[in-house]
Amino acid sequence: MNAIPLNLPTRRGLYYGGEWHAPKTNRYLQSKSPSTGELLGEIADGTSDDAEAVIAAAQQGFRTWRDVPPLERAKILREAGALIRKHGDELALIDSADGGNPFHEMRSDAAKAAGQFDFFAGLVTEMKGDSIPMGPGVVNFTTREPLGVVARIVAFNHPFMFTAAKAAAPLAAGNSVIMKPPEVASLSAIRLAEIIGHLFPAGVFNVAIGGREMGAALSTHPDIAMVTLIGSVPTGRAIMKAASETLKPLLFELGGKNALIAFPDADPDEVASAVIGGMNFTWCGQSCGSTSRAFIHESIYAAVVEKLPKHVAKYRPGLPTDPATTMGAIVSREQYEKVLRYIDVAKADGAKLLLGGKRPDDPKLAEGNFVEPTVFVDVNQTMRIANEEVFGPILSVLPWSDEKQMLRDVNAVEYGLTCSIWTNDLKAAHRAAAGVEAGFVWVNEVAKHFLGTPFGGYKQSGIGREECLSELLAFTREKNIHVRFAG
Ligand code: NAD
Fold first, then answer.
1. Residue 216 domain-assigned (yes or no)
2. With 0-12 CB in 10 A as exposed, 13-18 as middle and 19+ as buried, what is 445?
3. Residue 482 reports pLDDT greater than 60
4. Which of 181, 202, 426, 483 is most deeply packed, by most CB within 10 A?
């Protein structure tokens, strides 16, 4: 039994200008629990007319917020972080019911979001410029100014964490923000606005509820200074096209088909644990950073494969709102069906099913989008399962023998987000870290993010870096000022 009551937000509209608004066309979407199929109520389906109103309010908000001294802005951000911490369990439970991820994991998402408010609050005085020597009687210096209204469009896999945490950097830099949560899991974003909205001057923090039409309107509008996305590559392409009309700067965190590489000297049990841990089965592999291709040297391949079932056994699909659950439900029926299709594709291509590959038998889970943690072995890089992002609980294990060929296979995909390397051979670790086309590399570690370090992708996995000082600076622009004192 869950001791924390599920408090769904009472509002279902859009939050802008410091107030709640019904969608102008009165269009709503149904919000359903992916684990039980239960209707959780309706949320606004905001259109381009709503986007106009949100943007106008955010422009007003920007005019106030840009003049609030940085340390004052920091104080308000810390208050937001404290309120998120205070309501962490409640927000986590909403995400579990609405998005399907286990409660205990969403609880840590809420703590991480609060941590990012604190982190960027601490960086407000790092929006520094330079002074450039010019000789006597002249001063030349640069300042950094906020951009204006920033739109941040986010994905469904960590709905609350993305909607909350991604507001922190642009706000710290003096921009107003419009957060666009994913339409399949928007309830925690609505609750966030109920909880922290009042801390900011009207129009500074706004939440635009809606689907693709809302996202497209924000990407196109001339009064949006910058648009960012956490989402898929096709959406990134659509936004880039839309934003090109007004040459908006972009910050994209997109998909991944990431590799884990184990060298011959690595300990098979440690590798097996990392291979499974790197899949993020807790939230059904729905993570851009999941290492969904495990390249294991042939000399330890059999020993690693033999140990995989023991590590997979930790993940048992269950109702996400139960604090004991270790693996949740897939966010939507559409995504669930995509996962099942990829299981068939992998089998048809000749991959060998080692574990899972089907719905769990538990009758309590009959109405939800549940799939067992699924492991294919003897995969090779020509198979579709090794090239396409599933964004689901499917792991591919590939044997390798020749290092150069293995690195070519690792780099053969259009993505380049993360890579995890397992070896105690310093030279091999360094060769592989330098050779992989990925923006974030672990050696003898997997799955973790470290606040303060730049997270982002190579190739089609993204543009720009987050969770670090460059995220803050991305929401500023430099101005050079040249002053002549001499007569
Ligand atoms: P998605 O691209 O379908 O949707 C993401 C957001 O974009 C949603 O809010 C959606 O409403 C909006 N959107 C959709 N079409 C749009 C358009 N034409 N114009 C503007 N906005 C539009 O992605 P998803 O299915 O929610 O999430 C899964 C994807 O996100 C995966 O590819 C995953 O790898 C990626 N992701 C990346 C990271 C990262 O940090 N690199 C993190 C999480 C998820």
1. yes
2. middle
3. yes
4. 181
Same domain for 90 and 225, yes or no, is yes
Each residue's pLDDT tens digit, 295-328: 999 999 999 999 999 999 999 999 999 999 999 9
Residue with CA at minimum distance from ligand 1 atom 41? 253
Domain with 416 in it: 259-450
Quick check: 1 pLDDT over 50? no
CA–CA separation, 355 and 309 (whole Å): 7
- Between the CA of 232 and the centroid of ligand 1 the distance, in Å, is 4
Q: According to the model, what pLDDT value does residue 4 have?
A: 78
Is residue 455 one of the residues assigned to a domain? no
Among 165, 205, 172, which residue's Cα sits nearest to residue 74? 172
Residue 293 inside a domain? The answer is yes
Q: Which of 288, 339, 453, 459 to mutate to test the pocket of ligand 1 (most atoms within 8 A of CB)?
A: 288
Cα of 407 vs centre of ligand 1, distance in Å, is 28
> In total, how many domains does the chain have?
2
Integer CA distances (angstroms), 149 to 44, 70, 206, 368, 455, in order = 22, 17, 10, 39, 23
